[in-house]
Amino acid sequence: MIKHIYCWKYNLENFLLKKKFRWRNKNLSFKDSICFFGIPRFYFSSNAIVNIGENVTFISDNRYNMVGLFKPCTIQVNDNGILKIGDNSGFSSVSIYCSKEITIGSFVNCGGNVMIWDTDFHPLNYLSRRKHIENEILSSPITIGDDVFIGANSIILKGVKIGDRAIIGAGSIVTKNIPEDEIWAGNPAKFIKKVRT
User: Which of 2, 41, 115, 164 is most buried, judged by most C-beta within 10 A?
Assistant: First the structure.
């Protein structure tokens, strides 16, 4: 009986979230197979473009993932930003901030609390930071290939390209490109070894 009520509540929550996101975000495109566990926070500019593929899962609640999630999934796409997420990818308490362009492939798995940011958020020059001169904030597109695994609490920074089937160790900070079929880890992330195929 409890399981039946729990499933009914989950299905209703999913249905209502999908309706809400479609109604509020005219430039958001996603399939009905998208799945929400808990309530995410999405912020899309009116001229942002967001495409989410089939069977994509967002986990925003500790009831559904016990790794120690700090917050709901949060995604912000700013003016003229483009976010694309491929099929069958999964995210737990992810933070995606897109000021320019972020492309995430298919079958990508992100561990708990992963952050993917294509911007520095603030100017590097201290005088510009005081005045928050926005046109001096550096941003650069991020591309994450297919079948990539990103370990919990990792940070993917602007301008990075991660090749297909790469693995990022937990707690890593990725500041440069990672070739396909390689394992990288650390702060900053460094090559560990090739992935055996």
Answer: 115
Q: 160 is in which domain, residue-wise? A: 2-194
The pTM assigned to this predicted structure is 0.87
Chain centroid to CA 113: 9
Contacts 24+ apart (CB under 8 A), 16-25: 25/50
* Ordered strands of the 167-168 beta sheet: 35-37, 57-59, 90-92, 109-110, 149-150, 167-168, 182-185, 190-194
Which residues are within 8 A (CB) of 134 and not within 5 positions of it... i.e. 6 or more apart? none
Give the containing element (helix H, strand E) for 127.
Answer: helix 126-131
- Domains: count for the chain: 1
User: What does residue 6 show for φ and ψ, rounded to 5 degrees?
Assistant: -60, -45
CATH code (residue 93)? 2.160.10.10
pLDDT in tens, 82-94: 999 999 999 999 9
Task: Tell me the catalytic residues.
Answer: 122
